[in-house]
Hints:
The chain is α/β, with parallel strands linked by helices. The chain contains 14 helices and eleven strands. It has a five-stranded parallel sheet, with helices on one face. The longest helix is centred in the first third of the chain and has 17 residues, at 52-68. It is globular. The site of adenosine-5'-triphosphate (ATP) has 22 residues, from helix 1, helix 3 and helix 9. InterPro entries: AAA+_ATPase, AAA_lid_4, DNA_helicase_Holl-junc_RuvB, P-loop_NTPase, RuvB-like_N, RuvB_wg_C, WH-like_DNA-bd_sf, WH_DNA-bd_sf. Belongs to the RuvB family.
Amino acid sequence: MTQQFPENDTQNLPGQQRSGQERLVDAEVEPEDKAIEAALRPKALDDFVGQKRVRQQLSLVLEASKLRGKSADHVLLSGPPGLGKTTLAMIIAEEMGSPLRISSGPAIQHSGDLAAILSSLTPGEVLFLDEIHRMSRPAEEMLYMAMEDFRVDIVVGKGAGATSIPLELPSFTLVGATTRAGLLPGPLRDRFGFTGHLEFYDVDELELVLRRSAGLLDLKITTEGFHEIASRSRGTPRIANRLLRRVRDWALVHSVDDIDARAAATALDMYEVDSKGLDRLDRSVLESLIHKFGGGPVGLSTLAIAVGEETETVETVAEPYLVREGLMGRTPRGRVALPSAWVHLDLEPPES
Length: 352
Ligand SMILES: Nc1ncnc2c1ncn2[C@@H]1O[C@H](COP(=O)(O)OP(=O)(O)OP(=O)(O)O)[C@@H](O)[C@H]1O
Ligand SMILES: [Mg+2]
């Protein structure tokens, strides 16, 4: 059976029109991701794809604590958005057979907020603090003592009449997650018994993530189809799952049952996610750099004007991935297109 895909497909599919703020290839979680992410999250360490080192080390930590019959060491998970920190935190609680309490740095602005959470923990409970680098200073200091001695001092009253009441806590396991490990103060970092740094996934690993998700969503996709989607997912499972949903929509609208590489590519091209996972903004940055400035070097603000975007958008939204992929370089004299950028845009790189 040959499938015909129209070249200029103008059907309206969900998520097609996205502003610069809401990109298909953004690794940050978006409202539409939340429900589906919960459904696609692996629940056991064995189902968690990739991150082999972190997985092995974590498995050891959990195994040892089970043998000792004590709650596991505190765990810090760091790494870029969408790589599985929240997922691992949930797996830790699941594997320990412990209840999980979830809160986050921004939600804990006063030490009292933290005291309320800590004092209501049950023995062995896992406390997940997301974005732990955004906790307030006083709360952070209270956390030091809680992590080390399972005890906090609660200050009652103000000024000269203030007294502190020591409060014993049940033993618990803190799982902290951060996208900015560098922002964590040393004393806090040192109190974690285990730190796992999550890395971007390679294409093979993302294929496995996609295979698993496709199984749960009941989608039929060929090996090459998975490869095509994985290659466009920027090393990030969250993006892979999001692209998979867009491909699913496309296949549904076009009555395609068996999604092969060509179908996946046609669908994602239509959503303007190219073979390396660049979207319209990324490509227009590269195209301006090459066509308007001969590949640079050109100053960031000039480049931004040429693209018609804010300087900050170019710097924080497009640039990190272009640099990571070796398509663009930053030099003291400005931004430059690297040879692979020319190749990616089907152009001949200049001699020099
Ligand atoms: N190793 C993995 N195997 C399978 N699925 C994964 C894996 N890592 C992440 N995912 C999927 O990617 C999605 C995002 O993962 P998660 O929410 O854990 O990321 P995160 O690191 O907590 O991101 P953020 O920094 O935005 O909080 C989840 O739906 C999860 O199913
Ligand atoms: Mg998270």
